[in-house]
Amino acid sequence: MNALYILGANIIAALSNEARFQCMAHRLSTVLNDAWKSTKEEHEQFNLFDIAVHSLVAYVNKSSGIQEHLPKTIKSPSGTRPWRTFFLVHDSILSSYEALRDILITRNEEHRVLQISPALLKEIVNFFGKFNKIFDKLEMSDKPTLQNVIPTYYLIVSDVCAEANSDSDTLRFLKRKVIAGMNEKYWSSTTEMHKIACILDPSFKALNFIRGREQLQFVKGVQRGLVQLLEQENEEETHHAVKRVHIAEEDDPFSALREAAPVQLRNPSTDTSADELKTEFQQYIEKQFPKPDNLCVFWKNSALDFPTLSSLAKKVLVIQASSGESERHFSGSGEILSEKRNRLSADSVEALTVLKEAHLNKLWPAKI
Asked: What is the pLDDT at residue 113?
């Protein structure tokens, strides 16, 4: 444990000067969890509903002869992914509501289910069910996801949380809490890099989800961010080039003979001007593209038309929006490096982890 703590501290120290991005799937999960808690604290009817649900789940789980007679097993709350729990628990009760009532009537316990409004159950299930695909888009591991962060915000605030005439007062209250959390926690965690990634996806560059005036400001902000990114990259390239030359001269016994032909530090990326990038960006914004199946392949194929923009896109889109996949790898590696196999080398752990992922993704064994 001490070794792991020291390792974690060293990693944090090593990355102290690096840019760090929030896991946006975690931020969204926090928003939903806090909205649920706030609604319980401030809305008495919802609090009573939540208490009745937990009481029913506890009773079903500790009583024999109930679960096996239900069309869907009653799920228990989980602390790891609260938002998914909100959906699974209430969906299982809604699906088994009639069967539960019949069983509880024979036990003189029908009050447990009658305290729970089927209408509110359905509203909760329909509302939180919409977040499944949203989280999948943020946590997808085999494709770029950073471009989904900004559209996710607008999707939730303007569509998922849009109030309908049929909404109950309780659901309206809950939706408003979610919107407040999206503005306070989720949107405040977005950066220029998220906006750049959004524009670099041809599917989103029209910004149809943003109001007219804000679109122009958004695009101009992205252009400024791209120029700054290019300038930063050029500075880093020059710095690394100087460092490489310095090291080469120290190790090169013929360095004195090379003084007549000084080393050129310039490179294609350094020579690229901001004006050229702006021209490429404007052409990209104005050009129509079909929806790409694979964003990485799209920018690889666009390297001839947009060389500078393509180079920057590859660097930006490699950042994932969520740390979920990396955390799953850490958890999986922890299961491999157990007490009984504590002498495995780092290379062996890495190889077994990669092999496991290849098997899960049906990449191994290879078909001959």
From this structure: 93
Establish whether the linkage from the previous residue to 365 is cis, with ω within 30° of 0: yes
Length of the chain: 368
4-to-32, 331, 342, 351 alpha-carbon distances in Å: 31, 13, 13, 20
Residues in CB range of 144: below 8 A, 6 or more apart = 197, 201, 295, 296, 317, 318, 320
d(CA 180, CA 156): 11
pLDDT of residue 234: 78
Nearest CA-CA partner of 321 in 101, 83, 115, 147:
147
The pTM is what? 0.79
The full DSSP string for 145-189 is -GGGHHHHHHHIIIIIT---TT--HHHHHHHHHHHHHIIIIIGGG
pLDDT at position 281: 94
Tens of pLDDT, residue by residue over 65-109, are 999 999 999 998 876 677 788 899 999 999 999 999 999 999 999
What is the gyration radius of the CA atoms in the chain, in angstroms?
27
From residue 320, how far is each of 20, 77, 226, 299, 315 by CA, in Å?
Answer: 11, 29, 18, 17, 11
Whether the pLDDT of residue 266 is over 60: the answer is: no
Helix and strand totals (H; E) in the chain:
18, 0
User: What are the two backbone dihedrals, phi and then psi, of residue 242, each rounded to the nearest 5 degrees?
Assistant: -60, -40
The region, left, alpha or beta by phi > 0 then psi within -120 to 50, assigned to residue 21 is beta
Phi, psi of 100 (to 5 degrees): -65, -45
Q: What is the pLDDT of residues 208-263, one digit of tens each?
A: 989 888 899 999 999 999 999 998 887 766 655 555 445 454 554 444 443 444 43
The pair of structure tokens assigned to 98 is 């009639």
Q: Which amino acid is at 201?
A: D
Question: In angstroms, rounded to a whole number, what is the distance separating the alpha carbons of residues 102 and 330?
Answer: 46
